[in-house]
Write a structure and sequence with these properties.
Layout: H1 3-15, E1 26-33, E2 44-46, H2 48-60, E3 64-76, E4 82-93, E5 99-111, E6 114-122, H3 124-135
Parallel strand pairs: 1-6
Antiparallel strand pairs: 1-2, 3-4, 4-5, 5-6
Amino acid sequence: MTPREVFDRMRERWIANETVFDDDSLTEDVIVEMPFAAPGRPSRVEGRAAVLAFIRAGHADLPFRFDDCRALAVHDTADPRTIVVEYELAATMTATGVSAAAPFVGVLTVRGGRIARWREYQNPLAVASALQTAAS
């Protein structure tokens, strides 16, 4: 799978409200980075088992369901295994039914059709604002 195909699969999983990553989608030595992680959250998780544990724990606690993942732009890089994606996740709070969206940027590197590195840049203030709007 190409990086674009892998990202399309990630989008499908978000919209289906499944965990984005699974055993088959990750390399054994995968690295997930969140350079702007909120205080108290890790900014880097390494290895398939650790990434899956982290993602599954976070997914179980989500107070919302994803409604859409809009790819705003996909940029190729000098490395054909890596793309940069600008996207927006839209979600609805399950308790209130109110919806909101927040923008993200991701850098995706694929090896052998699997995710080798996912670096997600999110604006914690925009995410907090979207969650607060949706919780109202």
